[in-house]
Amino acid sequence: MPETRLRKLFNPWKSSSVNERPWEPTELRPRNRHPFRLCYLPICAAILLAVAIVGILALPAGASPQEALQDAANPDYRPFPIVGSRVAMWVVAQLHLMFAAFVLAVPMFALIIEIIGYVTKDKRYDDLAYEFTKLLSVSFSFTATLGAMLTFMLFILYPRVATYMVSIFSWTFFPYVFLFFLEALFLYSYYYGWGKFSPKVHLALGVCLNIVGTAIMFIADAWLTFMNTPNGISETGALVSLPDAINNFIWMPINIHRLIANMAFGGSIAAAYGAYKFLGAKTEEEKAHYDWMGYIGNFIAISALLPLPFAGYYLGKEIYAYSQSLGITLMGGTFSWLFIIQAILIGNLFLAANYYLWVSMERIEGAERFRRFIKYLLASVTITFIVWATPHSLVATVEEARQMGGAHHPMLGVLGVMSAKNTAVNVMILTTYISFLLYRRGNKEAIVPWAKTGNRVQFAIFAVTILFVIFLGVYGYFVEARVRIALSVPQVLAVLTAMISVTAIDIFMFKNAKKTGEIKWGQMPDRAQYALFFIALTFAWTMGLMGYVRAGMRQHWHVFGVLQDTSPDAFTPTLGFASNVISVTVLIFFLFISIVFWLSGLSGKKPWEPKAVDAVRSAESVGTERAVEAPE
Amino acid sequence: MNIVVLLAIAAGLIALRFLKPNSLAWSSATWVAVYVFLRYGVVPPVPASVLTMFMFIITLSLAVYLTTTEDRLKEVSNAFVSFFTDKKYTIPLVVALIGLPFIVAFRVYQNLTQLPDPPVVGRTIHPPPPATITFKGRQVDLVDEDNPYRELETSDPTAFAEHVSNGRLVYYQNCVKCHGDNMVGDGLFARGFNPIPANFQDPTTIAMLQESYLFWRIAKGAPGLPVESTPWSSAMPAWETFLSEEDIWDVILFMYDFTDQRPRAKEVHE
Amino acid sequence: MKSSLKIFGFVIVVLAFYSYVGNTVPQKITYPPESADLSADMTPDELAIAGADIVAGKGTCLGCHTVGSRDSGLRFPDLGGIATKASTRIAGMSALEYLAHSLYEPNEFIVDGFLAGMPAINRPPIGLTDDEIKAVIAYLQSLGGTPSVTLATDVGYVTEVSAIAPAPSGGATLGAGLDGPGVFTTYLCNTCHSIDSPDPLVGPSLFDVGSRLSKAEIYEAVMEPDATLAEGFPGGVMLTTLNALGFYQKVSPEELRALVNYLADQQGN
Q1: Domain interval for residue A49
Q2: Which of A187, A323, A324, A442 might form a disulfide with A364, Cβ 3.0–4.6 angstroms?
Q3: pLDDT value, residue A355
Q4: What kind of fold does domain C44-69+76-142 have according to CATH?
Q5: According to the per-residue pLDDT averaged within each range, which of A136-140, A421-425, C12-16 is highest?
Q6: Which is higher by pLDDT, A403 or B43?
């Protein structure tokens, strides 16, 4: 060991250093050179301070009673028994949304149906509109109750999030409440004032009801879209501009998407109501009425469903525009399998919608001509369904993966990409449209002189559109991403153009067309009614799923990139767990809505009388449920 | 796609047409045809998970097909009713009623006795090469350097032939045991390995790689594989310890010469 | 009533079916990202390995980018061999500068044929710390090259910590109550002093320092390295290095004590 020269130094491990040498400051070491005993002081102080800080942070109760009180009053999160805060919030929010969607959608098509009734002077339409409206009043109360519950739960379970959201949107809550008052006013005057005002005044009430309802939704959308794509705030999260925060990237897309989706959802629930009444109907008249009601509801639902994917593209595009990584999380990352489930749901929807139309053709005299096309339409729906549901990365066992030489199948890989799926969904929409066109023509025969040419032109439009759509889909494989993404726009435009132009031709061609037979309303098999239930359930489930992904794509953020989720629920659960929650939510919703159905049936019930044993139940009691369901 | 299976399915369906079957039989036949096509007609086979989903969709649309019109529904329900009530179907009915639970039980047994699969690990077969490697202390630039003897092919064919014949010697002394006599990766030891030795006759191996890439793989072998290619799951030795630089370039020349392939050209940087 | 029960049964069946579908797809729970364990003593190679984890995990890079994919029509640039490409992408920019630039200001230089849209990696939502980004750079350098970055490398960018978004703590942060070995590695002592073998590196081996020096002597040797020099080693090196690392400013008394105790425990064997 080399000889070392030890300089005497003030050193905590050296006992006699006090007398040896006075402390000398050195510029190299400004802090850690101290006389022996004194040097313990800063160490002790530092330890005390550290303990105090850690104590305050980790054990709020241990610091001081006052602080403890304050901290207990302002926790970041509070627990919810058994299911936990997240699932509780999730279910209540989803139920609120479903009821709200129903309450916003019904006035829209009730008004449209009422207008049709007013223009055509057909009393049937007016009655139908009133019957839809009857469902509203109870649903409105349910919506408001669930909304209040949602708000309370937000403030109780997620105080930090609620405080932050209030700090951004404080000024939007007042008009929201005010509009809610107006909504109640218009809704009840629209409902109770049925037939009590001049038709024009009543229609004006309906218009006001819809405007107010839409405004309410727009305000609420601002809050939730802000959480996904926050805007108008500084880097530290403080509010800079309220208009910017409201008009964030996906505010408008969500507004549009929800407006259309509400129509589809509301229509399907109304159709389910018709189906429910149909299955319990005793007389032919009732059956005919509710068959027709189910048909109208389903027609609204499917008409709104057709443009929905396009609104979805717009929404997706804006999400990507806001943040590429948010978009990728949504479509390619954690949630890519969710969109396979969605494809199965939408595929089922289209299949069921087509099925309903095809079965409906059974009750149209003269529609037998079109039966032979069903096979091909079905083949088209099936193939596009398969393409749409093909996953990009496959679940394969080791043996299978070895045979494929990786996780990608050479054939399925081709089908699993966006080019193929966009093409498939466009063709699927066109097929459904053709099914509807055939249904519409069921009992009609065009007598205009240019009927043959018209048919040929329509056929040519379809052929060209489908070829064009498929060509663009195939072309997409040969170009780079930038071009490929843009290709979906001409595809969508081509399909829309085709549908509009064919409809225009059809309207003129079948003006005063010869009737080959009657539509025998009520002569529907029960299975078609179950198809309506299936559609309503699938819509509700899809809504639950998409609601989940819209909220879930923020992953561990309350407000994406601004306010982090530090609760125990910050993780993203499995899709299976989410599916179970959604199923339970949908079940609760359907139990609630059956209460609504039952309540709205009460108003048509006969007054209670003692000993009404031999009371004759009149057949005119359309919409009375007890009469319908009472055992003979 | 397997053409033979495809033709067999088509022939079967056409033959069925002549029997004039009812809707139920026709639908069942379609179901079976689609299943056979997806199961055996597609190469490589469709994974079971996807197959299940596809068959579910097919089942659904066939159910739709059978129940759209009243006539067809009646045809189907009559077939079922007669199967359950007709005297002449007694024996098949008994067989079906006894057999079905057995099939279900057998499936359960199969599922329960299945050995657990190891997780699938994605393996990059041709990882990107490093820009430079150190070969016996010398820095070899894999981007710009090329086979130094390749130019002899045109300038000095005799010298080139010498290099190729030296390469032949190197190949049959070292490589043949795994990569095989005909370079298809079926040498004596090949069966013991996973992944199996590369098949150089396959146009997706050496034909789409540059010579410098081959030099890297031969010199550094499995131990030099980057992480994404999971080193050690390949049995290729690092030949830099056994062969000289010239030997390696020579054997590369021989590999292309023997398989009648050309190395991938260098990409020109603008 | 019978039809109501039938409908109820139908509802249950349909919902159960959708639950079943939801449970057949791959089930994966995504947890909030955890900060990687990075320490200042990591060699570039070790850093590259840690970087690979960040790239696959917290950085979520592989959501968009591929490594070594030969598919045509990729939506984002492939990262295979990026180290080679990075040096030639922008004239006058070294590979290191280009990589750092691409991570901190990703939308300035866009590779031909691709769209802008990558988020700045040091900002939320991804919000990697500067140290984590260095690990990512080391990993990228390993793709087709040799990593050269350590946590001490200056890549030309420093992120200011935002006030509201709680910046995830970057693993072993300096001054955070380290133990003896922690201090020893955090302040890079181990790059010059070997601790588990008697072979000296740049400075003398500390393999058996506990048997050679008392705690007091160790303390002095740390606080005033040039006061007593081991024979055969130059003076000034350790003092300059420790000053450059800010050791004397940052190290807390407890840490210093832990370090001295740790070194005193090195008795050889």
Answers
A1: 17-73
A2: A442
A3: 94
A4: Cytochrome Bc1 Complex; Chain D, domain 2 (1.10.760)
A5: C12-16
A6: B43
- Domain coverage including residue B240: 132-259
- Residue B71 shares a structural domain with residue B171: no
Question: Do residue B47 and residue A397 have CB atoms under 8 angstroms apart?
Answer: yes
Which pLDDT belongs to residue A523?
86
> Closest approach of chain A CAs to the CA of C151, in angstroms?
24
Asked whether residue B141 falls in the same domain as residue B254, the answer is yes
Q: Considering its fold, how many domains does chain B have in total? A: 2
Taking any CB pair shorter than 8 Å as contact, residues of chain C touching chain B are: 24, 49, 52, 67-68, 70, 80-81, 83-84, 88, 142-146
Residue B120 to residue A397, Cβ atoms within 8 A:
yes
Is residue A133 within 8 A of residue A191, CB to CB? The reply is yes
A413 pLDDT band, cuts 50/70/90, is: confident
Amino acid identity of C28? K
Average per-residue pLDDT for chain C: 78
CA C232, CA C224: separation in Å to the nearest integer?
18
User: Contacts from A409-418 at CB under 8 Å and sequence distance 24+?
Assistant: A409/B44, A409/B46, A409/B47, A409/B50, A410/B44, A411/B1, A411/B42, A411/B46, A412/B46, A412/B50, A414/A477, A415/A386, A415/A387, A415/A390, A416/A390, A416/A391, A416/A392, A417/A392, A417/A477, A418/A476, A418/A484, A418/A485, A418/A488
State whether B145 and B86 are in the same domain. no
* C254 neighbourhood in chain A, CB within 8 Å: 43, 46-47
* Residue B120 counted as domain residue: no
Asked whether residue A138 carries a pLDDT value surpassing 60, the answer given is: yes
Please report residues of A whose CB lies closer than 8 A to that of C73: 477-481, 484
Average model confidence (pLDDT) across chain A: 81
Residue B265 lies in a domain: no
Domain boundaries, chain C: 44-69+76-142, 180-264
B251 & B145 share domain: yes
| Last-in-domain residue among B65, B80, B113 | B113
Query: Is the pLDDT confidence value at A621 over 70?
Result: no
Q: How confident is the model at residue A219 (pLDDT cuts 50, 70, 90)?
A: very high
Say whether the ipTM exceeds 0.85.
Answer: no
The four Cα atoms A196, A198, A202, A203 give a dihedral, to 10 degrees, of: 150
Q: Which residues of B touch C147 (CB under 8 A)?
A: none
C80 contacts B130? CB cut-off 8 A: no
Any B CB within 8 A of A385 CB:
yes
The verdict on B155 and B243 lying in the same domain is yes
For the ranges A175-179, A270-274, A395-399, B259-263, the lowest mean pLDDT is seen at A395-399
Residues B228 and B160 in one domain: yes
Phi and psi at residue B135, to the nearest 5°: -115, 110
CATH value of C180-264 in 3.40.50.150, 1.10.760.10, 3.20.20.10, 3.40.50.1450: 1.10.760.10
Nearest CA in chain C to A14: C216
CA angle C206, C209, C212 (to 5 degrees): 145
Looking at the fold, whether B64 and B150 belong to one and the same domain comes out as no
pLDDT digits (tens, 9 = 90+) for A12-40: 555 444 444 444 433 333 334 344 444 45
Name all chains with 3 or more CB-CB pairs below 8 Å to chain A.
B, C
Domain count, chain A: 1
CA C236 → CA A2, A247, B88, C221, distances in Å? 19, 62, 106, 12
On whether any CB of chain B is under 8 Å from the CB of A395, the answer is yes
Do both B151 and B228 map to the same domain? yes
Judging contacts by C-beta atoms under 8 Å, the chain A residues touching residue C164 are: 236-238, 562-563
Nearest to C84 among B127, B131, B228 (CB): B131
Chain A with chain C: Cβ pairs closer than 8 A? 218
Domain-located, residue B191: yes
Which pLDDT score is estimated for B56? 92
pLDDT at B209: 81
Helix (H) or strand (E) holding A434: helix A418-441
* Cβ <8 Å between C70 and B126: yes
* Token duo for residue A346: 């939408």
In a domain, residue B155? The reply is yes
